[in-house]
Amino acid sequence: MLAATGLLIPACGGDSADVVTYTDTERLGRFQIPEQWHTYELSELSALDDLPFDEPVQGFTFPPVSSLAFDGDPVRDVTHLGRALPEAEYPIGLMSVRQIGETEKDFLSRALLTQSVLPYYNLANSQELQKEDFTFGGGFDGVRVLVAYEDEAGQNQGVAYLITVSNPEDTRMYSMIAGCSRECFITHQDTIVGVVDSWLVNKRA
């Protein structure tokens, strides 16, 4: 089992100094990351075999409307986003907005919101270290989760902090996630939490 020591969401996460605010090209969301981190547009992510943190659930898919990925590796390289979290030595993450189809809308749930970002229900020894309802107000409601899990060999551990909500019409899913290996997360915990908690969605778009 994973030990939870040191893995708790602070009441106020992150540092306020030396951060840069980024907005996706569709102006659907914004967040702050340390100025030395890197961002990657949706067009760059096409170089990867799979779009990170975008998973089919129960046969449902959610086409991306807009995405902006990021990482804290000293070297900018989009392939960093393809790493499994238990193997990530530096934080990686994604802010995304995805379309919810009419069929998917009928089955929308907190589980669908989280598992379409990170399917941790199916990962080894996964634990929801913290989980709570979350809202931006105005019907933009969902869930906030801190989760830890192991790789298939049980040798490495990954930790992710994510928030995901749907809009009032349940036609779009807004998600923000960041994480890395357990050792990395413990080292960068306040910064990772600060990045995710800095996220805002454009409720007028």
Task: Describe it.
- By secondary structure, the protein is α+β, with helices and mostly antiparallel strands.
- The protein has a single domain, classed as Mog1/PsbP, alpha/beta/alpha sandwich (Protein Transport Mog1p, Chain A).
- 15% of the residues lie in helices and 37% in strands.
- It contains four helices and ten strands; from the N terminus they run βββαββααββββαβ.
- The strands form two sheets. A seven-stranded antiparallel beta sheet has the order 3-4-5-9-8-7-6. The protein has a three-stranded antiparallel beta sheet with strand order 1-2-10.
- The longest helix is centred in the last third of the chain and has 16 residues.
- The relative contact order is 0.23.
